[in-house]
């Protein structure tokens, strides 16, 4: 179970770094889905975040990544010792891609 949690953390962190943050919190996004203008945290630095002008965008992105990684871990806790690792990782990746 610990291996699955760490693997989910790695997969979702990878996804969040490349396009998850953009699809959820891009500054020039529409009401439903974001854009891919900041792929790979490009230009996500000390500029004001979308959550608060006092918080830097990189801090806000990493803070939100924590919730993006914990949520599939909690959901996958239901398959402990019953599920396989590969389908669980695919599920976590798809779950975290949908904003």
UniProtKB/TrEMBL annotation:
Q: Organism classification, top ranks?
A: Eukaryota, Fungi, Dikarya, Basidiomycota, Pucciniomycotina
Record protein name field: Ammonium transporter AmtB-like domain-containing protein
Its Gene Ontology molecular function terms?
ammonium channel activity
Keyword annotations for this protein? Ammonia transport, Membrane, Transmembrane, Transmembrane helix, Transport
Q: What is its main location?
A: membrane
> What GO cellular component entries does it have?
plasma membrane
Q: Does the keyword NAD apply?
A: no
**Would you identify the family this protein belongs to, as annotated?**
Belongs to the ammonia transporter channel (TC 1.A.11.2) family.
User: What is the organism field in this record?
Assistant: Puccinia coronata f. sp. avenae
TM regions (residue ranges): 61-80
The lineage's top-level taxon is: Eukaryota
Has the keyword Transmembrane been applied to this entry?
yes
Q: How does it sit in the membrane?
A: Multi-pass membrane protein
Q: Which residues form the Ammonium transporter AmtB-like domain?
A: 2-98
Location of this chain's protein in the cell: Membrane
